[in-house]
Design goal:
- This protein is an alpha+beta fold and 207 residues long.
- It has three domains: 4-58, no CATH class; 61-137, 2-Layer Sandwich (GMP Synthetase, Chain A, domain 3); 142-205, Ribosomal Protein S8, Chain: A, domain 1, CATH 3.30.1370.
- Helices cover 40% and strands 26% of the residues.
- Helix 2 (60-76) crosses helix 4 (109-122) and helix 5 (139-161) packs across helix 6 (172-182).
- It starts with a strand and ends with a strand.
Length: 207
């Protein structure tokens, strides 16, 4: 996601310029690390004759997301810190805070809303869309594990009773977890019914 190149030149300035040309950007948008400088004086006849630099394009998307969430926490009066990183081309934003209830909300609705707003901010000036995933104190993984356990319990009940079972309304992300968890059951099938925000999953017995 972050573009980094190494380049050489007779001087540090020339090496930087060569790197900038390769990256297709300008110096105000990069971070420069000098790896080597040419020897001077008599050593220049026998030693290193080139400067070497490593130039990295600053990631405005990541920083914008982190800055937006940090400012939002301040406006909400919530104490916490934000960690931002990439995982499989997804911008991951983790909030570390003791005030998890305020940030998560009922069934994760507040967390989903904050994630949506953050996605709008980080994609505002991008030509290509990047997916954003926001989490607080590991809530998403805990919720995923809970939904998978629920899906397994209900699937066994449906297989035993051979009757359908309707789950409570869930957002698209949580419905995908249920569908995925039950896709390998031989005698169980799933489908969604209803309109948002009341759309829910029905688990059916498959003969």
């Amino acid at each position: 996601m972050i573009n980094t190149v190494q380049a050489k030149g007779k001087t540090v300035e020339e090496a930087i310029q060569n790197a900038l040309e390769e990256l297709g950007t300008t110096e105000d948008k990069v971070t420069v690390k000098v790896l080597d400088i040419p020897d001077s004086g008599i050593l220049s006849m026998f030693g290193n004759k080139y400067a070497k630099v490593e130039v990295t394009v600053n990631d405005d998307t990541l920083e914008n997301g982190k800055a937006f969430l940090t400012e939002l926490l301040e406006k909400m009066g919530v104490k916490g810190t934000v960690d931002a990183y990439y995982e499989d081309d997804v911008l991951m934003l983790d909030i570390d805070s003791r005030e998890t209830g305020i940030l998560i909300g009922r069934r994760g609705q507040t967390l989903d809303s904050i994630q949506y707003l953050t996605s709008l901010v980080v994609n505002r000036d991008r030509s290509d869309y990047i997916r954003v995933s926001l989490d607080v104190a590991g809530y998403r993984q805990k919720r995923k594990n809970s939904l998978q356990d629920l899906a397994d319990r209900i699937a066994l009940k449906v297989e035993k009773t051979k009757t359908s079972y309707e789950l409570e309304p869930m957002n698209p992300y949580e419905r995908r977890i249920i569908h995925s968890a039950l896709q390998n059951y031989e005698h169980v099938t799933t489908h969604s019914e209803g309109e948002e925000p009341n759309r829910h999953i029905v688990i059916d017995y498959k003969r």
